[in-house]
Amino acid sequence: MAGEKGFEQRARDFLSQRWGVKLTKRKVRIEGFDKKFDCVSEDQAYIGDAKIYSLNKRGDTPRTSKFIACNELALLLRKTSARHKFLIFGKERKIPETFIRDYGPLLGDVAIYFLDGGNLEVLHGKEPMSLRERQLIARNAFGIWADYEEVAIAAEYVERLRAEWEPRLKENRSGR
Predict the structure, then answer these.
(1) In sequence order, which residues have a C-beta less than 8 Å from that of residue 76 and are 6 or more positions away?
(2) Ramachandran class of 32: left when φ > 0, alpha when ψ lies in -120 to 50, beta otherwise
(3) What is the pLDDT of residues 104-122, one digit of tens each?
């Protein structure tokens, strides 16, 4: 259990720094049900959970009970109004890969990440813009005198455009 708690904290710290958003462990109310998630921003625009699971004793497949827990989390995340919903895994890469292979169509807009040391890999969905990307957009759009509200509005606009165009681009690429 200590490994899981340590991974939750590492994932929270890593994503908080990468995205420029303070993530903490807190309860989120979902349709009258309170659920505690490992990574939640104060405004609940970012909601996710960190998992570090092991393979079965033979070392070849993840335990079915773990997938049941992941499905429950994905369902609850989909019911939130968060802009960025995610599960972040560590330790065994095969677990999120198998989960996506078997349950990917049920994930909807829930992103799946794998954190290995200091490397974050997006396995399903997309990653929100980093703090650095948002700063560059604001600087280019508003100059060095941009205030925080202008930056937030610009970042939301760019992410909305990205979300709208991403399916069209995928469709065009697959139609070639």
Answers:
(1) 30, 33, 35
(2) left
(3) 888 989 999 999 988 999 9
Residue 37, number of CB atoms within 10 A of its CB: 26
How far apart, in Å, do the first and last CA atoms of the chain sit?
48
Domain check: are 47 and 68 in the same one? yes
Residue ranges in the chain whose pLDDT is less than 50? 1
CA 37 to chain centre: 12
Same domain? For 107 and 21 the reply is yes
Record the pTM: 0.73
- In DSSP notation, 66-86 reads HHHHHHHHHHHHHTS--SEEE
The model's pLDDT over 43-62, given as tens digits with 9 standing for 90+, comes to 999 999 999 887 767 666 66
Report the pLDDT value the prediction gives residue 165, as an integer from 0 to 100.
81
Token duo for residue 128? 């929100």
Tell me the residue range of the domain where 12 lies: 2-124
Does 150 lie in the same domain as 65? no
Sheet arrangement for strand 110-116 = 23-30, 33-41, 46-53, 84-91, 110-116, 119-124
Cα within 13 Å of Cα(112), Cβ side: 25
Q: What's the total number of domains in the chain?
A: 2
